[in-house]
Amino acid sequence: MKEIREALENAKTAVAIGLASDGVWIIDEALTLLDKMDWQPIETAPKDGTVVDLWHKGGKDCKGHRTPDCFFKDGEWLHGGLFPVMGIENYTHWIYTPDKPNK
Question: What does the domain layout of the chain look like in residue ranges?
Answer without folding.
Answer: 2-35, 40-96
